[in-house]
Fold:
Amino acid sequence: MTHTHIRADAPDTLLAGRPPVSTTRGSGLRDVGRGVLAHLKRARKALLIHVALRAVGLAVMAVWAHAKGVRPLEILGGRWDAVYYVHIAESGLTTAMASPSPCAQAGPGCQLAFFPVFPMAVRYLSYLTGLPVVWAAVGLGLVASVVAAWGIFAVTDKIYGRRVAFFTCALFAIVPAALVQSMAYTEPLFLALSVWAMYAVMSRAWLTAGVLALVAGATRPSGLSIVAAVALSALWEFLQWRRGRRAKRPRVGRMVAAAAIAPLGWLGYVGFVGYHFGRWDGYFELQRRWGSVFDGGFDTVANLWRTFTEVHTTLNHVTVSVTVVTAAVLFVIMTRRRRPPAVVWIFTAVIMLIALGGAGFYFSKMRFILPAFPLLFPFALALARARRSTVLWIVGSATALSSLFGGNLNFVWWGCP
Structure:
């Protein structure tokens, strides 16, 4: 496994493994604060364009909602998975949903399929601010999406530099399933935790990475991706040092601690669900009742085949299938050309494995792939070399298509985004 050269001009003080030596009390915190501000200043243009592009998508959704006589808040926080998160935030994990339950086919305890970090954070945010739970859920998702975009910039900046990081942030705001970044879903919070865990690994802040991976692992099932990325990256760094490819001896103790801490969130919640149902595989049985199993990708291939062989295919079916194929191609390109650091590559690979290898919920695969932002690197690298007129035409067209598709996904399509 090879590594892309990490740029030396990117600041590392935000999550540095060891704070600068200081002679005055409290100067360490001031150094951290200055590091955060320096990072934010470096990323400000990328974050502004990201927020602006997301605002276009939200504006189109709001106009569409007004035409349909629907409140935008209902779209962002009152449908599909958001219903379960709001229920858990209001009533707890083990409280049955009101009859008739929206997940009756999965049986009693169906809400336990949803991991707890996001709804519990919503509960405490609502308590602290006095906001209604739905408002707190949408607000947390919006804030987390900006923090995630900031982390995407920081990670990409360390690998390719500021210009490519800028375009990666911009493209992430207008991917086909971009509206999910503004909804009461777990993807924004999960990605925010995961991307900063990746940054911590790249900065050799192993304990920070382990703790962030622990929390991310209890945020959604695909938390296994960042758990694997942190643990395997620690192992890779150790092996590289043993083979003489690293001059400086790594902090083995911290690396072992990070690898041990990282899985605890995911394993803890899966164990809790198993205990609740009285069987060790209770969580996986619950997922099976929901219709979600891992079949190695046969269901994905079957749906791709139907896209090209059946005349009654919908716009969403075509868009999902094109996204799946494009993601697979981009992953191959990313792997063969300037492969990113191990932690970034492993995270992307496991996200792809979980998203494409799972059966069921084919039309949600755009959302499942969403956290794999490194797939955008080839496009961002190309835009970084393109003329300004070409960039404006491509980004403008993609923004319009993404915004219109987001509206179609919520007002025309009948299923979960």
Confidence is low (pLDDT under 50) at residues 1-23.
